């Protein structure tokens, strides 16, 4: 009645350490993301689901808005996945549109697991849907890293595809990001800048 969570309430949590670079000439985004994920649910996970939001522009993905042919891509390239510092065989993950399914070790209730993922993709030049090139020297880059989707007690893993129109459903977490761009570019972003003297 007072709106406070009940005794059985839980919510999973992920903290992200992102290192990403962007090359304006080719629009290539390349990065690594380290993720510490805590399973606070009462369930054991036999697989986990990630969102690859840039795959809105992948050939064959479901979307609510048209995209120009020249903006269709091969999607996010996953170069390597390590789970608790062990390399995951390439046949242990598959990508279906904006969802990536990762089959690794079981994750028990209240267990923490660590992921390191190397990835890359090409930013769209036109067909702007929340992300892409603005003009010859400006780019809006969003949702640019693999993110673990929500697991809740209604749907389990949230496997609804991102189609470009709807808002996002994500767990809370902490984010550290290192962004590398050419020296004559500036970066605007949310968060707290920790190395102002080094970059300005």
Termini Cα gap: 51 Å
Mean pLDDT across residues: 94
Provide the CATH architecture.
Answer: Sandwich
* CATH domain class: Mainly Beta
Binned strand content: 35-45%
Radius of gyration: 18 Å
What share of residues is helical?
Answer: under 10%
Uncertain runs are none
Shape: globular
Going by helix content, strand content and strand pairing, the class is mainly beta
Number of helices: 1
Question: Which sheet architecture does the biggest sheet show?
Answer: 6 strands, mixed
- Strand elements, count: 14
Describe the SSE topology:
Blueprint: E1 13-23, E2 28-38, E3 48-51, E4 77-83, E5 86-87, E6 93-96, E7 99-102, E8 112-122, E9 132-135, E10 138-140, E11 147-148, E12 151-152, E13 156-157, E14 175-180, H1 196-199
Provide structural commentary.
The protein is an all-beta fold and 200 residues long. The chain has one domain: Immunoglobulin-like (Sandwich). It contains 1 helix and 14 strands; from the N terminus they run ββββββββββββββα. It has one helix spanning 196-199, and strands at 13-23, 28-38, 48-51, 77-83, 86-87, 93-96, 99-102, 112-122, 132-135, 138-140, 147-148, 151-152, 156-157, 175-180. The strands form 4 sheets. Strands 5-4-8-2-1-14 form a 6-stranded mixed sheet, with no helix packed on it. The protein has a 4-stranded antiparallel sheet with strand order 6-7-3-11, with no helix packed on it. A two-stranded antiparallel ribbon has the order 9-10. The longest helix has 4 residues, at 196-199. The chain is globular and about 55 Å long. 22% of the residues are buried.
């Amino acid at each position: 009645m007072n709106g406070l969570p009940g005794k059985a309430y839980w919510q999973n949590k992920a903290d992200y350490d992102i290192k990403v670079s962007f090359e304006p000439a080719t629009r290539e985004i390349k990065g690594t993301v380290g993720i510490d994920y805590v399973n606070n649910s009462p369930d054991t996970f036999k697989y986990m689901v990630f969102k690859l939001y840039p795959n809105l522009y992948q050939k064959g993905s479901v979307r609510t808005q048209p995209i120009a042919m020249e903006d269709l891509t091969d999607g996010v390239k996953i170069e390597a996945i390590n789970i608790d510092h062990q390399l995951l065989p390439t046949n242990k993950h598959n990508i279906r549109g904006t969802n990536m399914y990762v089959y690794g070790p079981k994750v028990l209730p209240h267990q923490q697991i660590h992921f390191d993922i190397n990835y890359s993709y090409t930013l769209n030049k036109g067909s702007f849907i929340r992300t892409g090139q603005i003009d010859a020297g400006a780019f809006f880059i969003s949702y640019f890293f693999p993110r673990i989707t929500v697991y809740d007690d209604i749907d389990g893993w949230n496997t609804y595809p991102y189609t470009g129109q709807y808002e996002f459903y994500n767990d809370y977490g902490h984010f550290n990001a290192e962004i590398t761009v050419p020296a004559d570019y500036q970066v605007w972003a949310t968060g707290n800048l920790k190395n102002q003297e080094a970059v300005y």
